[in-house]
Amino acid sequence: MTLYSFIGAVEQGFVYGIMALGVYITFRVLDFPDLTVDGSLPLGASVSAVAITHGVNPYLSLLLASGAGFLAGMVTAILNTKLKILHLLASILTMIALYSVNIRIIGGPNLSLLGAETVIDSFSKTGVAAYYAAPIAFAVIAVLITVLIIWFLHTELGLAMLATGNNPKMITSLGVNTHFIIILGVSCSNALVAVSGALVAQNQGAADVNMGVGTIVAGLASVIVGETVFGNRTILQACFAVLLGSVLYRLAIALALGIEWGAFSFTPSDLNLITSILVITALTAPMIKEKITAI
């Protein structure tokens, strides 16, 4: 792997790690399978791109993107809790609707940000080499968000969210409104995914309505790989495991794409195959390790 590929993988690992943290909230904390993320990631990119092209500060555009993602998650959660639509179906319906919404926001299939001021540019102005500006910027933002999530999950509301995912009947008997908790959790999850999308768009120099395809797969892979390698015994360990799992996932993909066996080599079109192999390996590793230890 070249230095360029390594830095690129770390860069993507941190920026998509924010998305993985959002998936962690629904997948692990709330036990809520949510496919809305495939639509909320380009939603965040679209809102941020349009805001920046209209002269809005790039940092403020992140807040606007998170707000849009929050609303998208809220729609999914309300469809599930209030209208009694199965969570998986509710998220698919929202995801499909967001495709049209994103086109409306952008005014077309994509929107260029070339020449516009972005978050990465502000880091470059601090004296950081342009080559390292994006990885450092994404690492700082991702770590700050991770710390914020860890703090929140230790608050009374955060503990209620953990309990809702673990034992909803018990927490309901204690007087907690689980519908409110689910709506809040799914909304916050998609807000994080939208922020990730906004940062990706600013880094790539464009927002595209199709950039969210496969987001949920990458998010789940990051969560599972991170938990397998780094563990999840405590909230702090689990959250940082997800973030580092995203980095490992991107590094593994970069390594796989560089493998050549004679005339055979992996191409970007094999990304889903590589992801499936990684997830299967991560899921079966503990069982295999246990069997080897028993022998």
What can you see in these coordinates?
This protein has one domain (3-294): ABC transporter involved in vitamin B12 uptake, BtuC (Orthogonal Bundle), CATH 1.10.3470. 76% of the residues lie in helices and 3% in strands. The protein is built from twelve helices and four strands, in the order H-H-H-H-E-H-H-H-H-H-E-H-H-E-E-H. It has a two-stranded antiparallel sheet with strand order 1-2. Strands 3-4 form a two-stranded antiparallel sheet. A hairpin with a 2-residue loop joins strand 3 and strand 4 (264-265). The mean pLDDT is 90.
What topology, given as strand order, has the largest sheet? 1-2
Looking at the structure, the CATH topology is: ABC transporter involved in vitamin B12 uptake, BtuC
Query: Would you list the SSEs in sequence order as H and E?
Result: HHHHEHHHHHEHHEEH
CATH architecture: Orthogonal Bundle
Please identify the structural class as seen in this structure: mainly alpha
Radius of gyration, CA atoms, in whole angstroms: 19 Å
The level-1 CATH class: Mainly Alpha
The biggest beta sheet, please? 2 strands, antiparallel
Whole-number count of domains: 1
Average of the residue pLDDT scores? 90
The count of β-strands is 4
Poorly predicted segments:
none
The helix tally amounts to 12
First and last CA, distance: 36 Å
Roughly how much helix do the residues carry, as a percent range? over 70%
Overall morphology: globular
Q: Per DSSP, what share of the residues sits in E-state strands of 2 or more residues?
A: under 5%
